[in-house]
What does this fold into?
Amino acid sequence: MNSTISLQPAPYNFVQAAKQPIMYTYLITTIFIVIMNILNVWVLNRPVLRSSSCTYYLLASVMPVPIFIIVTPVNQILVNNRGLYISGTTVTCKLVMFFISTSSLWYASMLVCATIDRFLTSSTLVHLRHFTQVRVARIIIPINWILILIYMSPFIIIYYYDPMSSNANKCVQYSTTLISIYLISRVIVYYVMVPLLLAIFGTLTIYNIRTQRHRIAPVNQFNGQRRTESQLARMLIIQVASYLLFFTPSGIIYILVTFFPSLNTSYYATIRSLAGAWQQGGYFISFFFYIFSGKIYREELKKIFRWDRIRGKIFNIHNHPHSMTVGANMLPSVRE
It folds into this structure.
């Protein structure tokens, strides 16, 4: 009696298949985030750019990035590679969820402040331009951060560690009407108001710049300003578009998982990880956009890596031991 063995193909496991690509994507994008943000801070700290209040907002937007790197990509790499969850304790469960949400809102709020600053700078009303001074930015930035810390503080109490939970990270959210209202407010603030404010003030800035182009003014007085404003408009359009492009997918997934608990499965967690990996591009892509759209930014970057400066530093380092020797030889004569 002949028996036939039918070979059935193994079912496709989306969660397992996505683990390696997600891990490598997070690793590569994390390296890019670190390098590009270091260069970005380096360029923005140049005297030419540091004289603008907008630069302070852009520098402040970089500050939450290290926190984001620890609680999101590094955590994801440890999960996929070692099965280790940073949020796998009573304390870290609360802190990780708090910093994930707070760091992203810090970053977004600074971009909004920078966009509003550009709108005020391009305004023809003198009393509005008074709000674009550096000292105003130095006041607004810490106040903004304190308000965000207060607003995001409920995240410390709405999550708790449950070792018996079916969730992989054992970090569970309390489910009450008050918490649902709070989460709805966060969705409105972060996923609706932030993109809306970027779009509104970006459009108003472009309108102001185009309006000023039709005005008659001395060429030698306004040519430089017009060039700067046109660069600013390009950077602004690209910045708003890139934010919407990179942050919208993860926002949609977050809304679905938050308001539909039945979707909080490993399958949708993997989709959320993919969206998070895509979102990481938004944290470093602005560096390239600034290079291609901002001539001033590009020129300052060239000055940093200018060969004659590098050669001069190497020459000074090479001659430093000789100068130390000369100084040492002079010491006996001083004693005499």
